[in-house]
Amino acid sequence: MTLSPRTPVLVGIAAIEQRLEDPSGAREAWELMADALLAAGEDSGHPSLLREASSIRVPRGFWQYSDPGRLVADRLEAKQARTTVAEIGVPQQTLLSEACLAIAAGEEEVALVTGAEARFRELRARKLGVELADTLQTDVEPDRRLTSEEALFDELEVERGLMIPVRAFAVMESALRHSDRMDLVSHQDELARLWAGASQVAASNPHAWKRAPVSFEEIRTLSPKNRMLAFPYARLHNSDWNVDQAAGLILCSYEKAQGLGIPDERRVYPLAASESHHMIPLSARDELHRCPGAAVAGQRALELAGRRIDEIGHFDLYSCFPAPVRVFARELGLAPNVPFSVTGGMASAGGPLNNYVLQASVRMAEVLRDDPGSAGLVTTVSGFMNKVGFAIWSTAPPAESFRFADVSEEVAARSTRREIVGDHQGPARVLGYTVVYAGEHPSEGIAVCELPDGRRTIAVTRDAELAAAMTREEFCGRDVMVGQAGELRTG
Predict the structure, then answer these.
(1) Strand extents, DSSP E, 439-478
(2) Would you give the DSSP letter of residue 283?
(3) Long-range contacts: 188-193, Cβ < 8 Å, 24+?
(4) What is the pLDDT of residue 151?
(5) Residue 491 pLDDT > 80
(6) Omega into 232 within 30° of 0, i.e. cis?
(7) How far apart are CA 308 and CA 328, in angstroms?
């Protein structure tokens, strides 16, 4: 098989972890990005590739730099590199897909993608009272800035407290539970089993933030270190973004890789990718537990790669909370026993805000190198599962060059958006809900409800007894009353 010279190839990868108790000696986020790319250059066997890069793409993090890619470019002596910053709301996979498409089109020869967080360093500094001298960069703009124009939430979701990620995903989780006809106890057992299994994977991941396995009992049992945040999610169900982690990836053309003599066993090929950017607020979705974007984009990525789902040997399903993992598995038709993560998931491996997909892509490439000829699938989530992305990678060369599809219009055609109203008073039915805790005790219940005419509203109760009952009894599918200002009542 003769490959196109413009076929993109991943030739250098690195993941960096920094865990220094003394923050004064720790590196800041942009330095970790540069370190990751320097390590990726060594991994490729040709560090000079870094100086030849025509682009550096970076997803937005907690850091305040206006153009971290320029700081990195200067460190790498990549004088011709154009920089891109992708703001929150732009799927992380977009940066990788863009780089692949630019190489395939002959617009770029060498492209770099990197990202980092240094939250652990910041937390240690605050705890110890250490003042950090971070690089001040506010007057340099990137060559390109990618933004998301769509609102992530409905105004009523903001007003009634459903814009906080753990609460929104907990509502989605409750709808999944109800759809699966699971009782509350069995459901919490299932979440603990799923996350305990992921922590076993993290134990063998050299880049994981936490490599000590977490037991079923630890996750299932509430404790001072595992307090309930938004029922049914406790602390150990949540992504851990207080990490110092970075990833660096070097992509180049097949022609370039051949010219440099990069060994076949070091190359990983992006076969195909797909994305959906169609936005519907959680409360307005036809079914809270489904994701049409994942169903359409997942199938399209497989078609473009020429693979069936049972021909994918390795998966990394986005794992900020259990709900995305379970939704992706459902939409892809994965068997329940298929390992869902090569990293160990964002609660154990680390979830550096807007950089996890790069960390997962590095780890996937390592796994694929150790399993020649196999294929792996990495998923992306943004905007509370409004925006999703899929990428399929393999060490086996593709039948044709990288292929990409934006399926947003197709997803829009398959989706229904329900009207959300805030002034309804009267009967409603609960579609999904969560309970927020104050310390150890339930304090507030938040429910997405369907009205008799099919519209939606969000009802809230601050009655501690009712909130506690919502953690003991299934409220999904229950008929309730909505009072003034969206007050949730049981009769």
Answers:
(1) 441-450, 456-461
(2) G
(3) 188/220, 188/232, 189/220, 191/219, 191/232, 191/237, 191/322, 192/216, 192/217, 192/219, 192/220
(4) 78
(5) no
(6) yes
(7) 16
Q: Is the pLDDT of residue 153 over 90?
A: no
pLDDT score, position 48: 96
The secondary element (H helix, E strand) that includes residue 330 is helix 322-332
Q: What is the pLDDT of residue 1?
A: 61
Residue 194 CB-half CA count within 13 A: 26
Which pLDDT does position 199 carry in this prediction? 97
- What order do you get walking across the sheet with 55-59 strand by strand? 8-17, 244-253, 110-118, 55-59, 82-86, 144-146
Measured distance CA(380)–CA(299) in Å, rounded: 15
Backbone angles phi, psi at 24, to 5 degrees: -65, -20
User: What does the pLDDT average to over 130-159?
Assistant: 91
Token pair in block for residue 422: 């805030």
Closest of 145, 158, 109, 118 to residue 33, by C-alpha: 118
Lookup: tokens for 398: 């593709």
Dihedral sign for Cα atoms in the order 202, 206, 211, 215: positive
> In this predicted structure, what is the pLDDT of residue 149?
78
d(CA 157, CA 285): 13
- Mean pLDDT score of the chain: 96
Q: Output helix, strand, coil percentages for the chain, rounded to the nearest 5.
A: 35, 25, 40
- Classify each residue of 147-168 as buried b or exposed e, where b means 16 or more C-beta atoms within 10 Å of its C-beta: ebeeebbbebbeebbbbbebbb
What is the total residue count of the chain?
Answer: 491
Q: Using pLDDT thresholds of 50, 70 and 90, give the confidence band for residue 338.
A: confident
Is the pLDDT reported for residue 384 higher than 90?
A: no
What is the spatial distance between Cα 425 and Cα 107, in angstroms, rounded to a whole number? 58
pLDDT of 457: 98
Residue 295 structure tokens: 């169903």
Q: Find the radius of gyration of the CA atoms of the chain.
A: 23
Contact 208, 349 (CB under 8 A): yes
User: Over the stretch 363-377, which tens digit does the pLDDT of each residue have?
Assistant: 999 999 999 999 999
